Amino acid sequence: MLRTRSGRTLVGSDPLPAAIVALTVVGGMVDAISFLGLGKVFIGMMTGNVIVLGFAFGGVPGFSEPGPLVAIVGFVAGILLAGCGERMTSRRGRRHWFRHALVVEVVFLVATTALAWLAPGTSPLARDTITALLATAMGVRCATIRGLAVPDLVVTFGLTGALIGLVQDSGTAAGRQSARRLGVVLALGLGAAFGALLMEHAGLRWSLLSATAMVGAIAVAVRGSELP
């Protein structure tokens, strides 16, 4: 990892930003996996799902799948679950809940991966269930990260804002601030490229397994670090 002369990483001495950037990479992977393997549905970018639903209501061929609506419902369920978790651990702080939120996400991803391996040919019901579980996991993650309010690191739901800030403030923003914004944009794009590559050469099951393993590794790393 790149470091400055003072020994601080580009995301600072706090390990949380690095974890969020790593999760953004996985978020790009999962969106690519879902769009290519679950029927034109996004797991993390609800704006995309609303647009896809608009296509369906407009009668565009190939956009009549219920996946986007299932994803939105699952995402909302994840937000509510994150809210309950934050309230239960409020005495320890939101950063303490972040550790637990990662465990919750891993549990949902393991269930999703297991279903993908067990469901022969991924039937429509299995596909929608996988979509719901993935979206719930992403809802937990995004709501938790939004609550942490780490500057310039708001993953998928703030990507447009990060890009605007990167360009508009390029002449005045501090180096680390610009690095964070650029990191979010690049992390999501690289994750999507990697997810598409996995889908092309390994298929849905192995792609989901890879994403689950990556989040699991991030969860282990975060639990072993000290969050200020």
TrEMBL record:
**Key words, A-Z:** Membrane, Transmembrane, Transmembrane helix
The record's listing under Pfam families reads: DUF1275
Domain of life, source organism: Bacteria
Bilayer-spanning residue ranges: 16-36, 41-60, 66-85, 97-119, 148-167, 179-198
Record's protein name: YoaK family protein
Native species: Streptomyces blastmyceticus
